[in-house]
Amino acid sequence: MSQAVISRPEFRSLRDILALEQQTYDETVPFVSTASLLGYVATAYQDSAAISYQQNPSPEEAPLSWSFNELRQQCVKVAHLLRNLGVTREQPVALLAPHVPSAIFALWGAQMAGCVFPINYLLGADHIAALLRKTRTKVVITLASHSGLNINTEVKRAVELADCVQ
What we know:
This protein is an alpha/beta fold. It has helices spanning about 15-20, 25-30, 35-45, 70-85, 100-115, 125-135, 150-160, and strands at about 50-55, 65, 95, 115-120, 140.
């Protein structure tokens, strides 16, 4: 992988924004894949915190934290799992989960494996099923059963209704 050199542009005026808009896509976004982006940040920022997550509201409790290296490792694990399940670019992986670290790993890992299709987890089972059928989704990632959230129950119903998820 060639090492992209990223500079952070400073926008002080409308002229700066207009100059950026004149650049080609390849100049603005030098990464050809999710894997190359994660590889770059893992190399550039290594053990710096990529994700900090406050699991409970107590200010005395330290947040959970993942470095850029750990973020990349977790995403690669998800990508390998999904590829082993037969995921390809032609078949999106549906993701129905709130914004928690495991959902971030799933999002980036599914992008590495093929294609991710985030779905609003607040939708009802009928609506979710219609989306799954329309996209011919064969793999769904969601939360495990949880006493405070009915996401898992709705997704299970949607999977049954869709009749395309393996």
